[in-house]
Design goal:
The protein has two domains: 1-36, no CATH class; 40-161, Alpha-Beta Complex (Nucleoside Triphosphate Pyrophosphohydrolase). The chain is 15% helix and 40% strand. It has helices at residues 79-91, 151-161; strands spanning 15-19, 22-26, 40-48, 51-57, 66-67, 70-72, 93-105, 115-126, 134-141. Strands 3, 4, 5, 6, 7, 8 and 9 form a seven-stranded mixed β-sheet that branches. It has a two-stranded antiparallel sheet with strand order 1-2. A hairpin with an 8-residue loop joins strand 4 (51-57) and strand 5. The chain is elongated, with a radius of gyration of 19 Å.
């Protein structure tokens, strides 16, 4: 439940107590409370010539299956910038975020994000080259999609294509 055993303020040993309807690490000396913030991921939905940009996953879970370019938002990072960064890292392509398309649950596996902000984005430039968490990147026609990694990806594509 906690990775904190001692208070970061005063170094006292923490107790587990119910605070704000949830069990949390609490410092009995100074009152510090450990709040666990949600993990946020950002993804891009890029359509070009009526085809969607997808990457094939290198890592588990779902290694070898396809998904939207996506990744975790770093602390202090703007989620839209994170989506653009992840796309560049995984595909070699620069994109420009146009709008939020959807917000979906990413809790399909233990390491998943609590929620994923999916941005609709447009291709700007670059040469397609898989890297980082992807070993392949391709544009797919809506009627010829590869096996998809996540229900969230399926939901987003169904919503976009109707």
């Amino acid at each position: 439940m906690t990775d904190f055993k001692y208070c970061p303020r005063c170094a006292s040993e923490l107790n587990i107590e119910e605070r704000f309807r949830t069990l949390r690490p609490v410092c009995p000396k100074c009152g510090w409370i450990r709040f666990v913030d949600p993990k946020v991921a950002a993804a891009v939905l890029v359509i070009r010539d009526e085809r969607v940009l997808l990457v094939r996953r290198v890592n588990e879970p779902y290694r070898g299956l396809w998904t939207l370019p996506a990744g975790f938002v770093d602390g202090g990072e703007d989620p839209a910038e994170a989506a653009q960064r992840e796309c560049l890292e995984e595909t070699g392509l620069s994109v420009r975020v146009m709008r939020i398309f959807d917000i979906v649950s990413g809790r399909e596996h233990l390491r998943g994000a609590d929620f994923v902000i999916v941005y609709q984005a447009e291709f700007i430039s670059g040469d397609m080259k898989a890297d980082d968490d992807a070993d392949a990147v391709e544009w797919f026609d809506k009627d010829h999609l590869p096996p998809l990694a996540f229900l969230a990806t399926q939901k987003v594509l169904q919503s976009f294509y109707g």
